[in-house]
Write a structure and sequence with these properties.
This protein is an alpha/beta fold. It has ten helices and nine strands. The radius of gyration is 28 Å and the shape is elongated. The relative contact order is 0.13.
Length: 342
């Protein structure tokens, strides 16, 4: 049983090493956006891209995975998972929208190639991945293995009208178990819902959300310090940010300036995380993690070797005892035969 436990632990560490190798081998940065259904993941990406690119709206909108990659072309295009032919980018709203009859399987991925000239964010080899709601499929482990194994950054888009939910915590616990030191940002979206509250109530709710998130990231996952985590939590309204960037900011709720400023602060820290210095830091942290895993594997193999040696020694001793007992029986048997012959 002890050997079996050591073997299982070794297999988990080998999977983490594999994820580190995949990350280091890639020539681009990959960012995965996750959250519950209708939390505004697609709207956040649209706001960052400064255009209404991905389908968004009320209810369960995004039905499958969507990746956005910057390319040196004038006209955007997309590739379906079942065809190598380039399709008009506008068809993405039919293929990935759960309300459409043409929507694809939830585990499929539609790849959208967007002109780099239209968005600064994707000029530097950054790939953004949108996802269906993590509460819509029981196969979350499959999603992580297929689409997140090599993600450099995770952006959790939460609904600020409620606290961090069990499905969101469960997802990142699985990510943390499978991957090496996942890099996380937390966006409390729809913070414009607080516009009608008095300042005291709004501050109390914000503190509650922040404290519970820090407790989860620091105490339960052990990913960052409290200071680091607090600098990764933002209270925003992606819908307002998109309206502002598309020149439609005519009916925004009170306090929109502060929410939009915080969205811009998120983008600055997000882009810094993906900068050249952050990439070096990322590789350094993964190298350290790889070293720790290698040391753990060495300890595990040493324990297995010692257990095997002890077990072999025990078997050899039992063999000697059995051989001695057998020789005794043979000698007694021979003596009895001799006695009766006489």
């Amino acid at each position: 049983a002890v050997v079996s436990t050591q073997s299982t632990g070794s297999q988990n560490m080998l999977r983490q090493i594999d994820s580190i190798v995949q990350i280091i081998d890639r020539d681009h940065m990959k960012v995965a956006f996750f959250g519950r259904t209708s939390n505004g993941k697609s709207t956040v990406i649209n706001s960052m891209l400064r255009d209404q690119i991905l389908p968004s709206g009320i209810g369960h909108t995004t039905n499958c995975f969507l990746s956005i990659t910057g390319v040196d072309v004038q006209e955007p295009y997309l590739l379906r998972p079942d065809s190598p032919d380039k399709k008009n980018a506008q068809t993405i709203k039919r293929l990935s929208n759960s309300l459409s009859k043409e929507c694809l399987d939830p585990n499929a991925i539609v790849r959208l190639y967007w002109p780099k000239t239209k968005c600064a964010l994707i000029r530097d080899e950054v790939v953004l991945v949108d996802s269906p709601g993590i509460d819509m499929s029981p196969d979350v482990d499959g999603w992580i293995d297929t689409h997140c194994q090599d993600a450099d950054v995770f952006v959790l888009v939460a609904n600020s009208e409620s606290t961090l939910m069990h499905s969101e915590k469960s997802f990142f616990k699985r990510v943390n178990a499978k991957l090496s030191q996942p890099n996380i940002f937390i966006l409390n979206n729809r913070w414009d819902c607080s516009a009608g509250e008095d300042t005291g109530t709004r501050d109390e709710v914000r503190s509650q959300h922040q404290d519970r998130t820090i407790e989860f990231i620091v105490d339960e996952l052990g990913l960052m310090t409290r200071k680091e985590t607090s600098e990764r939590i933002f209270f925003i309204s992606a819908k307002e940010a998109l309206k502002i960037r598309m020149g439609q900011a005519s009916d925004l709720a009170q306090g929109w300036e502060e929410r939009y400023k915080e969205f811009e602060e998120f983008e600055v820290k997000f882009e810094h995380c993906l900068s050249a210095s952050a990439i070096n830091t990322k590789f350094h942290s993964h190298a350290l993690r790889g070293r720790d895993i290698a040391n753990s594997l060495n300890e595990s193999l040493t324990k297995i070797e010692q257990l095997s040696f002890n077990y072999r020694k025990k078997c050899e001793e039992e063999k000697k005892i059995k051989e001695s007992q057998l020789n005794f029986v043979l000698e007694e048997s021979a003596a009895i035969k001799k006695f009766f012959k006489q």
